[in-house]
Design goal:
about 375 residues, alpha+beta, Beta-Lactamase, Heat Shock Protein 90, 2 domains, five-stranded mixed beta sheet, about 50% helix, about 20% strand, disordered N terminus, binds adenosine-5'-diphosphate, binds magnesium ion
Length: about 375
C-alpha cells in the first residue's frame, strides 16, 4: 500500500492496485483535469479513484467515496442488478457507453437522483481489471430537451390550429366565390330574359304596323336584340361565365335567323365552327356583325324563292386570332358596291363594329357574296 497519496489512504481494501496506477502522477493529474466526473472501480465495485467533478456531482467528499462501494452512488431501483452488470462487463470489457438506450440515474449523497451519462473504459493491469468511468450530469441537457419538446409540441399545436383556420377560411372563400358565380349566372339569365321580353314587344309592335318599311326596320331591330340576348344565354349556360363559347353561339344564331327568314325553307345552312371562346366585349360586336351578315344574306341573296347555300365559318387562325366568314351563293352584291360607302344602317353598323374590334373586313362577290373578318380573340 502506498501512503504518499492522501486521497487513497482511506481505501485499505484496494491495497495492491494502487501500487501500479495510482502512484502514477500523470495519470492522476489527467483524471483530475478531465472536464467530466471520473471514477474508477474494481471488479468488486470498490471505488478506487474519483476526481473533483465526481465530488461535486454526488455531494460526497473524496474521502467518503474512495474505498467505499459503488452501490452508494446507484439509485435503489437499479442497485440490485449492478453486480450482474459488472460481471458481464468484466467478462467482455470494452470502451462503450453504459446502459445504451436507457436513462441512467445517479444517487447523490442527499438522496436526490440526477440523470447521468456514463462512459465505461476498461483498464487491465498486472494487478487486476478495473473500469474507469466518466460520469456526466445531464440534468441541464434533459431540461433543455424537455423544453425543446414542449416548444415543438406547442408549435405543432399552433400549426395544426393554423391549418384548421386556413381550411375554414378557404372553405368560406370558395363558398363566397361559388355564391358570386351563381349570382353572376343569375344576372345573365335575367338580362337574357329581359332582352327576350323586349324582343317580343318589338315583334308585337311590328305586327300591328301596316307600313312595310317600318315593319322591316322593327324586324331588324328585333333580331339585333335577340342576338344580344343569345350572348347572355350562352354565357349562363357555359362553365365559365366570363367567356362566351362563340362556336355554339354562331351555330344557334345562324339557325335562329334562317329559321325565322321568309326564304329560310329554300336555303341550306352550312355551319363549320372551331371552338373559340370570347370575352363579353368581343362577343357582343362579333355577334352583332354575324347577325347583320346572316340577315342580309337571307334577305338579299336569295330573292324570288331562289334556293342556295349559306355558310357560316369560324376558324381559329392562331392562338390569338380567329376568322369569321359568312358566304352565300346567291345573287351577289350590286355592281360597284362598296361597303364603306353603304348608306344603309346594316352595313354601317358592321363597319363600326369591325372598327371597334380593330379588325379588317374583306368583301368578295360574284358568284354570291362573301364577308370575312379577321379579329383578335383576346380582350
Ligand atoms: N349577301 C348579300 N347578297 C346580296 N346583296 C347583299 C348582301 N348583303 C348585302 N347586300 C346588299 O347590300 C345592301 C346594304 O345592306 P345593309 O346595309 O344591311 O342594308 P339593308 O339590309 O337594310 O338593305 C343591301 O341592300 C343589299 O343590296
Ligand atoms: Mg341589312
Amino acid at each position: 500500500m502506498t501512503t504518499h497519496d492522501a486521497h487513497v489512504e482511506s481505501a485499505p481494501a484496494a491495497g495492491e492496485l494502487r501500487a501500479l496506477e495510482l502512484e502514477d502522477t500523470h495519470f492522476r493529474l489527467a483524471i483530475e483535469a478531465a472536464p467530466t466526473g471520473m471514477l474508477m472501480i474494481d471488479e468488486a465495485g470498490t471505488i478506487l479513484l474519483v476526481n473533483a467533478q465526481i465530488e461535486r456531482l454526488f455531494g460526497y467528499t473524496r474521502a467518503e467515496l474512495v474505498g467505499g462501494h459503488i452501490d452508494m452512488l446507484i439509485p435503489d431501483s437499479s442497485r440490485a442488478s449492478h453486480p450482474e452488470f459488472r460481471e458481464r462487463y468484466f467478462a467482455d470489457p470494452q470502451t462503450r457507453p453504459m446502459g445504451a438506450g436507457r436513462e441512467l440515474f445517479a444517487r447523490r449523497k442527499d438522496g436526490r437522483e440526477v440523470p447521468v451519462e456514463i462512459g465505461l473504459n476498461p483498464m487491465t493491469t498486472e494487478s487486476g481489471r478495473y473500469v474507469l468511468s466518466s460520469v456526466v450530469d445531464i440534468t441541464e441537457r434533459k431540461r433543455a430537451e424537455r423544453e425543446r419538446e414542449a416548444l415543438l409540441r406547442q408549435l405543432r399545436g399552433l400549426n395544426a390550429d393554423l391549418e384548421v383556420r386556413v381550411a375554414a377560411r378557404t372553405a368560406e372563400l370558395s363558398g363566397a366565390l361559388a355564391e358570386r358565380d351563381i349570382l353572376i349566372r343569375e344576372i345573365h339569365h335575367r338580362v337574357k330574359n329581359n332582352l327576350q321580353v323586349i324582343s317580343s314587344l318589338i315583334r308585337m309592335q311590328m305586327r300591328s304596323l301596316a307600313d312595310q318599311g317600318a315593319r322591316a326596320a322593327l324586324d331588324e331591330c328585333q333580331s339585333r336584340v335577340s342576338a344580344i340576348a343569345l350572348i347572355h344565354e350562352k354565357l349562363y349556360q357555359s362553365d365559365d361565365y366570363a367567356l362566351v363559347p362563340f362556336s355554339g353561339y354562331a351555330e344557334s344564331l345562324a339557325m335562329g335567323v334562317v329559321h325565322l327568314s321568309a326564304s329560310g325553307h329554300a336555303v341550306t345552312l352550312r355551319i363549320d365552327v372551331d371552338e373559340v371562346l370570347l370575352p363579353m366585349d368581343r362577343a357582343i360586336p362579333c355577334g352583332l356583325i354575324l347577325n347583320e351578315l346572316i340577315v342580309n344574306a337571307m334577305r338579299h341573296a336569295f330573292p324570288d324563292g331562289r334556293s342556295g347555300e349559306l355558310a357560316v365559318e369560324l376558324r381559329r387562325v392562331d392562338a390569338a386570332r380567329a376568322r369569321l366568314t359568312v358566304s352565300d351563293d346567291g345573287v351577289g352584291l350590286p355592281e360597284s358596291f362598296r361597303v364603306a360607302d353603304a348608306a344603309s344602317l346594316g352595313l354601317q353598323l358592321v363597319t363600326a363594329l369591325v372598327e371597334q374590334l380593330d379588325a379588317a373586313l374583306e368583301v368578295a362577290t360574284g358568284p354570291g357574296a362573301t364577308f370575312s373578318i379577321l379579329f383578335a380573340t383576346g380582350a
